[in-house]
Specification:
globular; single chain; alpha/beta; 15% strand; 8 strands; 304 residues
Length: 304
């Protein structure tokens, strides 16, 4: 029995919960407009010369000031705190270890772009953005790693707002060729952590994420700095088509499951949308089983 199957067994009790209402795929693309009426296509105007690929270890002042003192109130790790003094920090250390092992090629599973990590869920509200941010913060604590956190949930971006920063441009603007990726990146006051905001909303978001521009960007981000971890906060798998398109570019995928809320059949259906060649892990969020009482904790399963 695989680790994923064991993790799924833990979710068996959730089958008694009513199936949450699935929101209609709001990202389904409308009928394309006549070609002459379009300003550009997602594959046009992409300009990201390899020599200008962004680095994150420069000494310039940060573009975005994250209020470190406000992180705890929002359940976000303080990267300057001692993990031994913080239960949640220790849990995310356990979650990030297999992720980093795959990034460094220390595991038996070999995939393309192992440093591209997508964090998603089956349905909304399970804690994927919370997990993506905390995973990024935890990896930023590493001595030899840099982290780029990408808000790829274009329809409902939350990364920058949760961190208390603002941005004028981001991922969609880069894919449309309206800015360079290094111009959209936000260096933060958290050492080793940078952000790529979602950018403006776009009616063809699925096509943008599935475009050759996105593939080239993913290649560039992954290969230029192989010791850098790029975390994508993705839309839920069951609600939009963007997540399924984006998953095809990833080396690792973490699926967040809220215990006692999401029926196992929904999780199973969501996992069935992923490619067998991808490394897929489960993060069991808000777990009370292991620690008893009302203690707020995490459990996880990881496997291919």
């Amino acid at each position: 029995m695989s680790i994923i199957e064991k993790a799924m067994e833990k979710l068996g009790g959730a089958e008694k919960v009513d199936t949450p209402e699935l929101i209609e795929d709001t990202a389904a693309a409308p009928e394309p407009a006549p070609r002459e009426s379009r300003r550009s296509t997602p594959d046009q105007d992409y300009a990201q010369p390899a020599a200008e690929a962004p680095g994150f270890n420069d000494t310039r002042d940060p573009d975005a000031q994250i209020r470190i003192d406000a992180l705890y109130a929002h359940g976000i790790l303080d990267p300057s705190a001692d993990p031994k003094d913080n239960y949640m920090a220790e849990e995310f250390r356990r979650i990030k270890r297999p992720v980093l092992a795959h990034v460094m090629g220390e595991s038996a599973s070999q995939v393309e772009h192992p440093n591209l990590v997508m964090v998603t869920s089956s349905v909304a509200g399970e804690g994927k953005t919370f997990t993506a941010i905390n995973l990024a913060m935890s990896i930023a604590m590493e001595m030899d790693k840099t982290v780029l956190l990408v808000d790829a949930d274009i329809a409902k971006p939350e990364v920058t707002s949760r961190l208390g920063v603002s941005a004028r441009q981001g991922l969609t603007d880069v894919l449309l060729g309206e800015c360079r990726v290094q111009d959209a990146l936000l260096r933060t006051n958290v050492p080793s952590l940078s952000l790529l905001p979602a950018g403006k909303r776009h009616t063809h978001s699925t096509e943008l994420l599935g475009s050759s521009n996105m593939r080239r960007l993913a290649d560039e981000l992954s290969l230029r700095y192989p010791d850098r971890v790029i975390i994508f906060d993705s839309p839920p798998l069951m609600l939009t088509s963007e997540a399924r398109v984006l998953a095809g570019l990833m080396g690792q995928i973490l699926v967040v499951v809220e215990e006692s809320r999401t029926p196992q059949r929904i999780v199973t259906e969501a996992l069935g949308m992923l490619n067998d060649s991808e490394i897929v892990g489960l993060v069991l969020n808000k777990s009370h089983r292991t620690f008893g009482g009302d203690y707020y904790g995490y459990g996880y399963g990881y496997g291919q």
